[in-house]
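hey so i finally got around to running the thing on that chain from the lab meeting. sorry it took forever, my laptop kept dying and i had to restart like 3 times. anyway pasting the input first so we r on the same page abt which one it is
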Amino acid sequence: MPVITCIDDLKRLHKRRAPKMFYDYCESGSWSEQTFRENTSDFHDLRLRQRVAVDMSDRSLKTRMIGQDVAMPVALAPVGLTGMQRADGEIKAARAAEAFGVPFTLSTMSICSIEDVAENTTKPFWFQLYTMKDQDYVRRLIERAKAANCSALVITLDLQILGQRHKDLKNGLSAPPKMTAKTIADLATRWSWGLEMLGTKRRSFGNIVGHVKDVEDTSSLSTWTSEQFDTRLDWKKIEEIKNMWGGKVILKGILDPEDAIMATKVGCDAIVVSNHGGRQLDGALSSIRMLDPVLQAVGGETEVFLDSGIRSGQDVLKAKAMGADGTMIGRAFVYGLGALGEDGVRQALEVIAKELDTSMALCGQRDINEVTRDILQIPEGFSGRWEA
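ok and heres what got predicted. didnt touch it at all, straight out
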């Protein structure tokens, strides 16, 4: 068993063990991938202030996200096709999150269905909704999430149209993978992945196939999904979905102060500063650079989480110090899942918690809820100096 000391260790294992198309799906952005890269590299510009001769005992990472007790300010973000990184991937990730004490978010585009995850976990999880043109399907999807006792609805706002993701197009991404000569050659070197997949019945989009009229298999699914993302989504429709749900709502995909203000007017329990992991608008600023302008615009009226770019506990600490109420991790837990399954997700969470705890202590802090910008050295103009 390899010794795992950082998220990059899990990433290297993930690359070896998962089929190329699914690893690339995780480890890629749109167009030139500038925003994808800067989501992580911009964290490096924030420096930590070391403090000494302070009491570092009795430390705590515990906090709350939308009123829910969490072991640390981290939730597992919604990631599509997680069940293709490892057989029954969403179930395994949800179990690991539950055991650790952090929220898990199930994607609309998951392989395991809402019901699959609910049957294999004991605590409520969050459900992420893509808004589709088929309103009847959206209503039924929300009812299924309610029936599964999901504790929050995460509405993704930044995928009305699909950003051009070159690697996915070149790989012919599909679930399950189409058996081309290229795919067969790749899968021939991924025997453990293939054997696990043969042992599960969950190999397509569990929240869609069998739940939408005329979509009974993968051949009809691709046509349906390409036509279904709601290009007419606006704040009125978001408010209608919020009212339809009737519970806690998190709006994900906010990257502009004006949109943050609109989100608070609609009413939500939290917003997520996110650029979809750099997979939508390439050339946009990183999430960490946009966090402060969004916080200033919101003015404490709703909780603010940060998503996109977090690969370590130090990144979590920096986001928290900048003012985020919590964070969401996607690739970091998927690396663990693709590398070592459920245990890999657990190890990813443990690595992040260890780094967060150690770094917080070395900055002279004992409680994550008391961390402020005082522990940071922030470059002048970090959030940008742009012409009006």
